[in-house]
Amino acid sequence: MSFVDRRRFLQSSLGTVGALALGGPLSADDAPAPGGAPSAPFDSLFLTWRQDPTTTMIIQWIGDADAPDKIAYAPLEGGVWRTAAVLAKPFTGTDQQVLRCELTGLKQGSEYKFSIGDAKPQYRFRTMPAKATDEFCFVSGGDAGTGSHAVSSNLVAAKQDPYFVLIGGDLAYDNGDSPKTFRRFLQNYSRTIVDSDGRLIPLVSCIGNHEVQGHFGGRRDQSPSYLSVFDC
Ligand SMILES: [Fe+2]
Hints:
The chain is α+β, with helices and mostly antiparallel strands and 232 residues long. The chain has helices spanning 3-12, 148-159, 179-192, 224-230; strands at 21-23, 46-48, 57-63, 70-75, 82-85, 87-90, 97-103, 111-116, 123-126, 138-141, 164-167, 203-205. It has one domain: Sandwich (Immunoglobulin-like), CATH 2.60.40. The protein contains four helices and twelve strands, in the order H-E-E-E-E-E-E-E-E-E-E-H-E-H-E-H. The longest helix has 14 residues, at 179-192.
């Protein structure tokens, strides 16, 4: 796919998603210290954005229809816990769901913790700094795949403690017809892309030809796995 076509495709893939922010207490005070990689049933969990990366965060994973319907989140160092709704939609071509929760109204350049439903583990992330002139690090790559080489690259990327990872196409090499391969990519990412403080590192991506059946000139329905997850 050409650069221009890829950019247009990405722009058009960002639609609408909502999450309901609700005030209220929570019951995660006895959870372990926040941080570290997710595990089953959240072993494909990752972060991304569709809006302002300084004040929002999307938490997303592939799971079953009976997955928790809310996420609790709070500033890392104290502050009010809030909850946000998890929305479910089909992970096309499977009986699984894409579970998505968008947090909004976050503080710029800040750290947060969150937990999913009644599960004990707490995870960590940070929002982007307030100013474009603030210094930050990110990692860029592409043509990833799911083998040992990809896992090794992930580990090197995570060691840089980046604010986010940018993958410019060809994530899983599912070629538009292997949801299992695409989920495996997410599982690898979730397990390995964690920074030295235990924070999850958001993934920003654009579609590549190996996300699409026939590779070039395809229709949207020929990229079922990638667009199930990234077509917000
Ligand atoms: Fe490629």
